[in-house]
Amino acid sequence: MSYENRNLYPDCITITRTVEVGGLTKPQLIQKMQQHSIFMNELGEKLFADDNFTTSAKKYTLKTVELTVRNLGLPEGATTTQIFNSANQLDLNLCPLELGPHLRMAYMDQAEGYSGKPSRRNQAPYGSITIASEILNEDKNFPKGFYLRRIKGVLWLRGYVADEQHVWSADDHFIFCIKKDF
Q1: How far apart are CA 31 and CA 168, in angstroms?
Q2: In a 3-state reduction of DSSP, which class is residue 34?
Q3: What is the pTM of this model?
Q4: Is there a contact between 23 and 56 (Cβ–Cβ < 8 Å)?
């Protein structure tokens, strides 16, 4: 089975977004998410509360791209490290962790992820979009990052755990930052 180059980034279907990030403290971000009726799970709250999760006082703009693991050249799925390495080879960057809440507030019309499908254990949920970001803590029980999801009409910014042996599905969606030309 061969994998055609036309299915690889950048020659594949992607979704790009430009997102304004920064300018808010963590308490201000939480308040703004509450005003937008955005919920967080316990892992998201734990990640948010960690001292290593910082926010920028200055506003800046990021251009992001959403694509599948398959579009990174990994048609059989891959571990987080393999996904991040493949993205780097395709000139994509990891996102700052603070992109999560800002992107969640900017992307209010996310498609429903629940749709009556059964939950998947130890896999990314249907309709979820994982934000590729630097891992703050190698402890297997500490959240590794954020993902976006809409469940029965409710918007979520959720944290997740995944160890290095976890294999993401080829159809799982990730968001990366597009490298800027300097």
Answers
A1: 32
A2: helix
A3: 0.92
A4: yes
